[in-house]
Amino acid sequence: MNNPKLVLNIKLKGGLCNKLFCLFSACEIAIINKCQIIEPTFGWTYEILFSDIYDLDYFNEYMLKYTINYNLIIKKNDISNEQKIIENKINLWKFSEGVLSIQRKNGNMNKDCMNINVLLALKINKKYLDLVDKYYDVFIHLRLESDWKKYSKNKKLNNNERIYTDLNTFIKMYNSTTFSKTDIFFTSGENQINIQNNLQKNGLISNFYFDKNLEYELNAVINFEIACKSKIFIGLSRSTYSNCISLKRSLLNNDENYIYNFKNKIEKRIDKGLQCNPQDSINITTFINH
């Protein structure tokens, strides 16, 4: 392959899916400018390489339809003396928000947008495939972490929306649905055993996955992949994690995606994970232009 002369060095910021949105931006910028990207790092508690989480060969092969004759992401040790490293000066998160604001306003996404293509190019590292080979009727993304609760107190919203929903309130909403009471999988960043016990006390039999020996964001990716395979997904529209899962599930022809952060009800979203405003997520249909 004929590698470009320029290699872009990027820094991904935020939690897992905030980092992914930054990666979407970086890929678009690199493709437009015909340059490669130095393999980025992920990690919340310590740094891990992209290839520690995802299959780098699969990613590069998928993205060849845009690069034609070179790998989009290059390992640092593979950079040649003829190549020049340039530091990224563009705010990747703001770049992504600019793209999303147009998509949200128009209610459509183009099949060639990087949000779609990078998500489809992300395949979990082969050594973790056995962990994600699971199927559940219902996958629930519960935002009960202490930092999320603190964050929610500083957000001013309309009376029908809540950023933070305590577990007892969620259980009441869930038990008013016809969803499965026994084949449930949930993810939350903290207190998984306590959550599982409280669900069981209310007649909900659940499973979860969290391995303290794995980096926090690697745990999140494993849960992400399980969520994408489940029959039903329930999350919240104010979370990039929930939104990315909803988008990928829609790309895999599964639109059984729901939110629980609006009107104290669990409602079906029709936006393919595009809208962060919960009212919009259940009322504005997103179309993907082919």
The CATH topology name of the largest domain reads: Rossmann fold
Biggest sheet strand order reads 10-9-8-11-12-13
| CATH architectural grouping of the largest domain | 3-Layer(aba) Sandwich
Strand content: 15-25%
Helical fraction equals 40-55%
Number of helices: 12
One letter per element, helices H and strands E, the order comes to EHEEEHHEEHEHHEHHEHEHEHEEHE
Query: How many structurally independent domains?
Result: 2
Average of pLDDT: 96
> What is the β-strand count?
14
- Please state the CA-atom Rg, rounded to the nearest Å: 19 Å
- Give the N-terminus to C-terminus distance in angstroms: 29 Å
Outline type = globular
Please identify the structural class as seen in this structure: alpha/beta
Main pleated sheet = 6 strands, mixed
Q: Low-confidence stretches at least 5 residues in length (pLDDT < 50)?
A: none
CATH class category name of the largest domain: Alpha Beta
How would you describe this structure to a colleague?
With 290 residues, the protein is of the alpha/beta class. It folds into two domains: 6-121, no CATH class; 128-289, Rossmann fold, CATH 3.40.50. The protein has twelve helices and 14 strands. The strands form four sheets. Strands 10-9-8-11-12-13 form a six-stranded mixed β-sheet, with helices on both faces. Strands 5-2-1-6 form a four-stranded parallel β-sheet. The model has no long low-confidence stretch (mean pLDDT 96).
